[in-house]
Design a protein that fits this description.
363 residues; L-amino peptidase D-ALA esterase/amidase; six-stranded mixed sheet; four-stranded mixed sheet; 14 strands; 25% strand
């Protein structure tokens, strides 16, 4: 039986309307691709398996990102993390490769694959022009996965890029395959908001890789779901964990404005009970598809549209709502996964969740 997303379940988060797909890909041109790796079972043999991992890529547009960069920004909520590429994004305010998500020890291999992919597209890199800045973000999936094996290889990154489209699978897929959130099975979730009023027509989309949170802290629409389900199939006591948040918009924003947008994702995390513990690697990357920056602009002026800061508040609210809903979707869509040493990541129980949400008037 297909597990429901939040809205299909009757969980209506926020006041703003989602886009038609309720996904980051409601931002025109954005694509998402996954490769999921599941092999073996039983006792952990470091370097060999069992394998419960994968890679997810987000393409800001379908063209050559090195030649046509997008405006971008990043925000570190808590820096117990091992990302690649954020220093240059912070300095230059642009993103020039697909954004890849994977597990912590696979970051280097995935970054190398992104570099190889961009070198094949751009014969001038490192010859007549500069180098390229891959952006890779991670969470630790070692509870379920043989993380030492670094099983995500170049071909998997290439496959994820080639398969990227507008239909986004959620839950235990791609980079989310081995992730745990609020001591339930977590992973990939996405949501969007379509703005109205003076900013009518603009869209904000969010994709999360959820791997964070203590069971007791989980809150859905104000209901203390984690407290009510604290004893349900509890194998994994989590004091840390991480979340990666990718925000896309077609609103014409500067890098400074995108950083302000990225900061608001913290409120969406807090609404579900996250508080960025000591061991959290909580990272936000935001980009706008509106203004592309040519790599070979030279001294030519760039025609750059933007909106005034005083008009940003609806965008901020959209990020908060979409982040909250994306996290809930990552939990609802995830299935139970049995991994290394027979560790289990249990899916949040739909019937029990319905009971709890009914008790607190959410449904």
């Amino acid at each position: 039986m297909e597990r429901p997303r939040a809205r299909e379940f009757g969980i209506l988060i926020g006041e703003m309307s989602p886009g038609p797909l309720n996904s980051i890909t409601d931002v025109e041109g954005v694509g998402v691709g996954h490769v999921t790796l599941i092999r073996g079972e039983g006792k952990l043999v470091p370097g060999k398996g069992p394998v419960r991992t994968g890679v997810t890529v987000i393409l800001p547009h379908g063209g050559n990102l090195f030649k046509e960069k997008v405006i971008g920004a990043c925000f570190v909520i808590n820096g117990f993390a091992k990302p690649i590429g954020l220093v240059q994004v912070e300095e230059l305010g642009t993103i020039e490769t697909p954004i890849a998500l994977t597990n912590t020890l696979n970051v280097g291999i995935v970054a190398d694959a992104l570099i190889e992919y961009m070198l094949e597209l751009n014969e001038d890199i490192g010859v007549t022009t500069g180098t390229v800045n891959p952006v890779v973000l991670e969470c630790n999936d070692g509870w379920l996965n043989d993380i030492r094996g670094r099983h995500v290889k170049h071909q998997h990154v290439f496959q994820a890029i080639r398969s990227a489209g507008t239909a986004v699978e959620e839950g235990a897929v791609g980079a989310g395959t081995g992730m745990i959130s609020f001591e339930f099975k977590g992973g990939i979730g996405t949501s969007s908001r379509r703005l109205s009023g003076k900013l009518g027509g603009y869209t904000v989309g969010v994709l999360v890789l959820s791997n964070f949170g203590r069971r007791e802290d989980l809150v859905i629409r104000g209901a203390p779901v984690g407290l009510e389900l604290r004893d349900y199939c509890r194998e994994h006591n989590c004091e840390g964990g991480s979340i990666v948040i990718v925000i896309a918009t077609d609103a014409p924003l500067t890098a400074r404005q995108l950083k302000r947008l990225a900061k608001r994702a913290t409120h969406g995390v807090a609404r579900v009970g996250g508080f960025s513990s000591h061991g959290s690697g909580d990272i936000v990357v935001a980009f706008s598809t509106k203004n592309r920056i040519s790599h070979y602009a030279g001294r030519a002026e760039v025609n750059f549209k933007t909106i005034p800061d005083v008009a940003l508040s609806p965008l901020f609210k959209a990020v908060v709502e979409a982040t909250e809903e994306a996290i809930v979707n990552s939990l609802l869509k995830a299935i139970t996964i049995v991994g290394r040493d027979y560790h289990k990541g249990y899916a949040i129980p739909i019937e029990e969740l319905e009971r709890v949400l009914g008790k607190y008037g959410v449904l």
